[in-house]
Amino acid sequence: MKKSTFILSILIIAALFTGCRKKEEQATKQPIRVETEVAMVGANGNGISYVGVVEESEATAVSFTTMGVIKRMLVDEGQMVSRGQLLAEIDASTSNNGVEIARATTSQAKDMVKQAEDTYAQAKDAYDRMKVLHDNGSLPEIKWVEIETRLKQAENAVNTARMGVVSAQATEKIAHKGVADTRLIAPVSGVIGRKQLDVGETALPSQSVVSILNINTVKIKVSIPENELKNIGANTRSTIFVEAINKIFNGGRIEKGIQADVATHTYDIRIIVANPGNKLLPGMVASVVFPTLQADAAANVYVPITAVQRQPDGGNFVWVADAQKKAHRKVVKVGPTSGNRIAILEGLNSGDRIITSGNQKLSEGSEVVFLSYE
Fold first, then answer.
1. CATH topology classification for 93-180
2. Where in the chain is the domain with CATH 2.40.50.100?
3. 3-class DSSP state for residue 365?
4. Contact at 8 Å (CB) between 211 and 249?
5. Which of 18, 113, 124, 161 has the smallest count of CB within 10 Å of its CB?
6. CATH 2.40.30.10 for the 49-57+214-294 domain, yes or no
7. Backbone angles phi, psi at 174, to 5 degrees
8. What's the whole-model pTM score?
């Protein structure tokens, strides 16, 4: 009895040890490093795929209208800003002093108007009283001329003083504008592109401080060889993949350049693309495919031949990775080859992330690391 109990204990301990070791092995199992490619309709590598660069649809250079040292910079590159938002300030001490001086000048001018109006009131009162005597013939003519002259001089003094107030107020308005000019305000909404100046640097009138980019829609700039330009029109359909954000976009209307690069004999085209959420940023690299340029590419997804593997029953499959970076087997029907790529007639959709290298070690649900994406 004791011997059988001892043996049973040994078996239980061994089972527990084996189970723990399996758990440890599973816990320490590392993700498999793979290379991937996003499946795209018509991406067969035969002259219909080009490399492009994302550009903003519009760029607005923002500058001060006066000279000064930048005291505060309130935005950073890549920051979204709204029209009317304060972007930066330059030292406003000189402008503020100008406002105080202008205010004092305006106040003095108004005091002079009051004094002139008081003098005019006195002269007008004397004129009214003396006019009765003058009309009765009781006032010498020379005395009357003197009274009229004083009234006219008082009236001129009032007009001059009032003009002084207008001039002082205009100067004060200019001084206030000088203060306003020390604040850099966004004229449009968009994203801050490049900062040309920063705190402590001197800004000159009309010198760009920052640029504001409109990226609600963007343009994909692509250089097209001159002998292939004839195949692309304003409404040629295009598919665009941007690996930096792992997204595919449908291209819109195409703008064609008319001036060739003398060195490469290529023409620049720009494909207009809607940019919801402003995910596409200027400078991102894009893969551009024109599916309709070849009839056999219009409806098929093309993948590298090395991505296709054979099943024991003779069928074919590829490995794809999902959003959680897990590998899954997809059975496919293959078509004709084109160079080092092969058409997938069934089983894949445009946008699927295909594992092109490292797939020999995979099993269903394997965790992977994207070498070509991470």
1. Helix Hairpins (1.10.287)
2. 60-91+183-209
3. coil
4. no
5. 18
6. no
7. -65, -40
8. 0.54
Are residues 113 and 162 in contact, defined by beta-carbon separation less than 8 angstroms?
yes
SS (H, E, C) 112-155: HHHHHHHHHHHHHHHHHHHHHHHHCCCCCHHHHHHHHHHHHHHH
Half-sphere exposure of 366 (CA within 13 A, CB side): 21
Enter the tokens of residue 148. Answer: 């009229």
What residues contact residue 121 under an 8 Å CB cut-off, 6+ apart?
Answer: none
Q: What pLDDT does 25 receive?
A: 46
Q: Rounded to an integer, what distance in angstroms lies between the CA atom of residue 245 and that of residue 274?
A: 15
Please state which CATH number belongs to domain 60-91+183-209: 2.40.50.100
CATH number of 30-45+298-370: 2.40.420.20
Burial 109-137 (b: 16+ CB within 10 A, else e): bbebbeebeebbeebeeebeebeeebeee
Residues 189, 82 contacting (CB under 8 angstroms): yes
